[in-house]
């Protein structure tokens, strides 16, 4: 059992040394390689020996034994370490397997993933079994340990118990606690959360913040309490404040916060020209956002905005590895590291023509090598939703005196409802719609109005939400019921209905939250849904994130949660959910 706690067993380590001694042959020899060395911050020339999944040697010597060794002449190419995405939400319609496969093709070979869906939807035993299975993917998969559900749920104390959190923190695949969406509780004196942060520190693991708009004093307090990194900078001044307090600072480019180009311009105006404390992230965007790439695209933007080329690559590789204390395995092309290597046409073109991940070609000469085998989802309770209950017209009663007004894709404010919501259909001349969150087991519901989502969406149902419960939105109650019925038939998904017919649907067969489909197919589906919603009045940046964050209490001001309508700023339930 102890052998499983180490990356390489003693026998494998002896084999690695035997390659150096000429007793065994490397698996792959990369000859005449021009590679990026992060220690010297220079492009150097060397031969690189690889045995199985490990870099055995980097230098001027050639191996004496080449039996069954693949020899690759790298003349004319530039080699950089596989990119690391440090902040992945791998359940945004896609699943961790499909996202990892897609990411590998553009050179992102290490992913550090949110565990929230696993914590909410699986038992701890199932979740840890899932993590073990993920270790066998060609890419390297690491995980977070959440300290709260990011909303108000009924059984938070059981899911986020002290025992569960400690077990997650102690897991070998977990490299950080957080993200700390619940940081106000920490500042208000939550000593159990502070204890978990202390435990993470004791185990040599990091704490990821979530501090949008935090003042200089707040950032200082949270650093004192254990935060190490934050990805919520929206301006150059935000970046400066975090650097001055000692944070590793993530520069973000995502669907709802595409801030990277502006941030880079502003930090350069502020005179910031050192990049060792920066990392890059896309912050778990929906599928279509990734058409232009993942971390490779962020490196490209950084270079275009004047970041020195070597620093741009380091922000996506060695800086991340050092921050997470995994530089002995990742982030550089040096002896002993996992063989994650990207092969580039030029130094300024970060999208690779070939990719080695754990010593295997996942992409070679622009061709995907099909190293990702089908994942056994049924082993982990990610099945089609089985729903043996129905929503009825009696459930669709809307009499709450105020509702949720969308300020943007994710920020919701309270507003007074002045229209008569007692009818079965609302006028298409205004942008107020019915909104219901209903328990996936059918035990409770909460009904209100939403203003700003759209003015011509007749019926809409989604099993994709922050809590895994069901969202119903619309102007016409019959079309809302039809959307729910079709969502049930799909076994989970997103359904748009109109005039008593299904207009569009995205099946989400994996627990109602994720699709089996590959990223390319999901991109097309998401874009089509986006077009249809915009034609019906949706005007903000990202409808997928709107669905996700309707229940998320880490954002102001008001949320619809399993416990009821929740006032985030005052931390109280204004109207409790109703038992059915």
Describe this protein's structure.
By secondary structure, the chain is α/β, with parallel strands linked by helices. 27% of the residues lie in helices and 26% in strands. A hairpin with a 5-residue loop joins strand 18 (402-406) and strand 19. It starts with 9 loop residues before the first helix and ends with a strand.
Entry summary:
The chain is of the alpha/beta class. About 25% of the residues lie in helices and about 25% in strands.
Termini separation: 48 Å
Structural class: alpha/beta
Rg over CA atoms, rounded to whole Å, is: 25 Å
Major sheet: size, sense and barrel closure?
Answer: 9 strands, mixed
Classify the helix fraction into a percent range: 25-40%
What best-fitting shape do the alpha-carbon axes yield? globular
User: Strand share of the residues?
Assistant: 25-35%
Q: Strand tally, please? A: 29
Mean pLDDT comes to: 97
The protein's oligomeric status is: single chain
Indicate the low-confidence ranges by residue numbers. none
Q: How large is the count of helical segments?
A: 17
Domain Amidohydrolase-related: 78-362
Family: Belongs to the metallo-dependent hydrolases superfamily. Adenine deaminase family.
GO molecular function: adenine deaminase activity
InterPro entries: Adenine_deam_C (IPR026912), Amidohydro-rel (IPR006680), Metal-dep_hydrolase_composite (IPR011059), Metal_Hydrolase (IPR032466)
